[in-house]
UniProtKB/TrEMBL annotation:
InterPro entries: AAA+_ATPase, ABC_SmlMolc_Importer, ABC_transporter-like_ATP-bd, ABC_transporter-like_CS, P-loop_NTPase. Keywords: ATP-binding, Cell inner membrane, Cell membrane, Membrane, Nucleotide-binding, Translocase, Transport. Gene3D superfamilies: P-loop containing nucleotide triphosphate hydrolases. This is ATP-binding cassette domain-containing protein. The keyword Transferase does not apply.
Length: 235
């Protein structure tokens, strides 16, 4: 049994754009999804998350078929570039929603939420409202919510793109630290070559709605570092 993520000839058409993804994503690794703008990176992630459903093909995750299951039924958490937090709820409540949408929390759950906030460097931030947080603090809160869910798969859609360069590096370090602790399967859409170099184990290159290659990071970086590279537009 392959316990990573499988997109088995997963196809759909959105508007006039056709997508046809066929790939395997290793369990326990951080896989970057790279490729030019409009190639289909977010669409691939949306298929894995269940926000889009394929018109044909199948999707497997941690050994079970998930092709038609709802996003909430899939063994995963998602962190987006923006809009991760409910603006009218404090940080504690935003994180708590990762455990219980109805906010039925045991003392143990409350402890886990405080612990997650501490691990992402937001100790004492529980009563703060999202509007009073910096961009990096908001992303940390989003990570804390993903952490308390304890799902084996973490999907990140350009999670650090709106942050400045220094903060991007610190958030990458945080991602690596959390990944070492949880050994979860991470898929991260990114345009940023340096981010790929810093955090990814493997790289899936998406072009024209298809998976063009899937390889170890070192091989990917070597290929595109070469002056003979034929794909200057890609990260
Ligand atoms: N719901 C939709 N209806 C019509 N076209 C869509 C829809 N969703 C995506 N597309 C088109 O599919 C293509 C791929 O979109 P997608 O967002 O997956 O690309 P991407 O690689 O993530 O791009 P970027 O790097 O710019 O975010 C784009 O041309 C986009 O306009």
């Amino acid at each position: 049994m392959f316990d990573g993520i499988v997109l088995d000839k997963t196809a759909l058409t959105l508007g006039t754009t056709h997508f046809d993804f066929d790939c395997r994503i290793e369990a326990g690794a951080i896989t970057a999804i790279a490729g030019p703008s409009g190639a289909g990176k977010s669409t691939l992630l949306n298929l894995v998350a269940g926000f889009e459903q394929p018109q044909s093909g199948r999707i497997f995750m941690t050994g079970t078929e998930q092709t038609l299951s709802r996003p909430s039924e899939r063994p995963l958490s998602v962190v987006f570039q923006d809009h991760n937090l409910f603006a009218h709820l404090d940080v504690f409540t935003n994180v708590a929603l990762g455990i219980s949408p109805s906010m039925r929390l045991s003392p143990h759950d409350r402890g886990r939420i405080e612990d997650a906030l501490t691990r992402v460097g937001l100790e004492g931030f529980g009563k703060r409202m999202p509007g009073s947080l910096s961009g990096g603090e908001k992303q940390r809160a989003a990570f804390a919510r993903a952490l308390v869910r304890r799902k084996p798969v973490l999907l990140l859609d350009e999670p650090f793109a709106s942050l400045d360069a220094d903060l991007r590096v610190r958030m990458s370090d945080l991602l690596l630290k959390l990944h070492r602790e949880t050994a979860n399967t991470v898929i991260m859409v990114t345009h940023d070559r340096e981010e790929i170099a810093r955090v990814a184990d493997r790289v899936v290159l998406v072009e024209g709605g298809k998976v063009a290659s899937s390889e170890a990071k070192a091989d990917y970086l070597l290929r595109f570092a070469s002056p003979a590279s034929t794909r200057p537009g890609t990260v």
